[in-house]
Amino acid sequence: MHTVAQLHALRERVDDEISTCTPDTDRGLDRVAQEMVLVTSELVTNALHHGRAPTVVQLLRDGTRFVVTVADGDPGAPRIAGARPPGEGGFGLRIVRRLSCDLGWYRVGAGKVVWAEVGP
């Protein structure tokens, strides 16, 4: 992924992937799919704006829990924004932290991987 314009297609793919691997009778996973789409979108947007290309996204599943990893070529630690006025942006990691069961990051080579786990 190289541009913000590709986010729409990514959001649809994440939703499709989660929807196709869950039974139609499990409505709790509809919420998981919606939250994972938002979490993925926020992490990828951060990578595109603050990281270095390429940005690589991976969706993993363990039962009803999903983990998204977003790798980019910048080794700098992700930062959760401090207090700022509404409309100034910078709340992506706060959103991810609220929606996910767990959130973390690690350095790999010359870059980093940020990950988040979402589940019922």
CATH fold assignment: Heat Shock Protein 90
Query: Could you tell me the radius of gyration in angstroms?
Result: 14 Å
Task: Determine and state the CATH class.
Answer: Alpha Beta
Q: Strand portion, in percent?
A: 25-35%
What's the SSE blueprint?
Blueprint: H1 7-20, H2 28-50, E1 56-62, E2 65-72, H3 92-99, E3 102-108, E4 111-118
Antiparallel strand pairs: 1-2, 2-4, 3-4
Helix pairs in contact: 1-2, 2-3
Compact overview of the structure:
This protein is an alpha+beta fold and 120 residues long.
Your description of this structure?
With 120 residues, the protein is α+β, with helices and mostly antiparallel strands. It has one domain (4-118): Histidine kinase-like ATPase, C-terminal domain (Heat Shock Protein 90, 2-Layer Sandwich), CATH 3.30.565.10. Helix content is 38%, strand content 25%. The protein has helices at 7-20, 28-50, 92-99; strands spanning 56-62, 65-72, 102-108, 111-118. The protein has a 4-stranded antiparallel sheet. Strand 1 and strand 2 (65-72) form a beta hairpin. Helix 1 (7-20) runs antiparallel to helix 2 (28-50) and helix 2 (28-50) packs antiparallel against helix 3 (92-99). The longest helix is centred in the N-terminal third of the chain and has 23 residues, at 28-50. The two termini are 28 Å apart. The model has no long low-confidence stretch (mean pLDDT 84).
